[in-house]
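Our consortium's second objective concerns turning raw sequence data into structural hypotheses that experimental partners can test. To show how far this objective has progressed, the report includes one record in full. It was chosen at random from the queue rather than selected for favorable results. The single chain below, 489 residues long, was entered without modification.
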Amino acid sequence: MTDADIIIVGSGMGGATLAAGLAGSGLRVLILERGQLLHDSPEARDPVAIFRDGHYRPDETWLTPDGARFSPGNYACVGGNSKFYGAVMLRYREADFAPIQHIGGTTPGWPVSYDALAPFYARAEQLFRVRGQSGMDPTDPPHDGYGFPPVPHEPEISDLAVRLTKAGLHPSPLPLAVDLERWLSRAQTPWDAFPDTNGGKLDAESAALVTALEDPNVILRTGVEVRRIEVEGDRVTGLLTSAGRLTAPRIVLAAGAVRTAALLLRSADEAHPTGLANRSDQVGRNFMNHNASAVLGLSGRRNRSVYQKTLQINDWYLTGGPDGAPLGNVQLLGRVSAPILAAQTGLPMPLARLIAGRAIDFYAMSEDLPNPDSRVSVRGDDIVLDWKRSNWKAHLALVAKLKATLKRVGFPVVLSKAFDRRTPSHQCGTARIGDDPATSVCDPMGRTHDHPNLYICDASLLPTSAAVNPSLTIAALALRQADHLKETP
């Protein structure tokens, strides 16, 4: 007797949404999560505890290629990193599925089209109750509209939208998985980078996992770490975990782009000396992490916003660079208060208070291109991350465009700071999908080319990072995979 029909390793955006898609199918689904449920506490809305003291950051460290240790900023809990995400649920743009020429090179495109993924995008938006408004963004892909109106702008952001429109841009509402009234009922804080402990954010746990666990055939086990995958011939036979050996006819890895790759590499054996699912030598390669910067526009006006993160600009997404090259997405950050600014920059509190009180905070994001030398590897028990930034000139051009625009619309002082490897800006790509087993790890449904009963369902699958938040695309791929698993023995 096996422990389940399907075991899912990880309860983040991919794993939890996959479980929700499998609920009601009659299949016995076991979800393994190395972390625990997050419970409410005073620290959950305390910016000093979160941003200065690192209350929720795990003790885990990774290595740079030269052996220096760093804290990767990933979270081990039920719901994974989505518990702290900005709740942005953007579809990839239609053009993102085809090869695109960037300043830093050309993307490879996807083995599936936007049209093939569109129905699953719509289902994911329903599951996460996404609030938005289609038709205002010039890069919007074909879309039948949202089931909920957008999260309302606060007065300062409404005024910003007017000024940007007068400058010739097309600001539009961010699609958000947020129940605003419920979020603010706990405390008057932003949600970006704050943990969801009251269901105000619709994340992998509060939306997808809650739905999945309504089915008695779906079981969640916490505090279980998977250490190795067993294989006989080309089939996976079991998982060696901190809770003993567990078995199922089908295994799905959804531990995140870094840890999924590390688990495959650590499971090397005599028949698979370079790791499982690695005939292509692509496991762990093509690691991508968005090029991202915080940009603060300062003026004499007070910014009394609480949450702020409701607006985006995509006028430079598909063009805007030299020879019309794409630059990326701009969206608002969650409100950067004085305690957050002081914790992140080391500024004295009086100066942080002065800046934060008069700033509107933006997040500039550009595509990182796949590169086989940008990779995850293992060294003993350690994970080694060798992230090689790409397309950096495009990101600098995007930040320059944004700064110039903000100065035109009434922000005489504009500051910027790039995020480094300690900030996981949408890690992806380490087990990418493709039609060719020689150049990809998984087929377009997420099944590994090398092992017919081993699947992957997380950001590892993404062949490109695009320049938008990946959560909705991961969820759409998960629902598509769920349908496949229900239809395929």
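The partners drew two points from this record. The longest helix spans residues 392-408. The longest strand covers residues 291-298. Both points have been shared with the crystallography group to help prioritize constructs.
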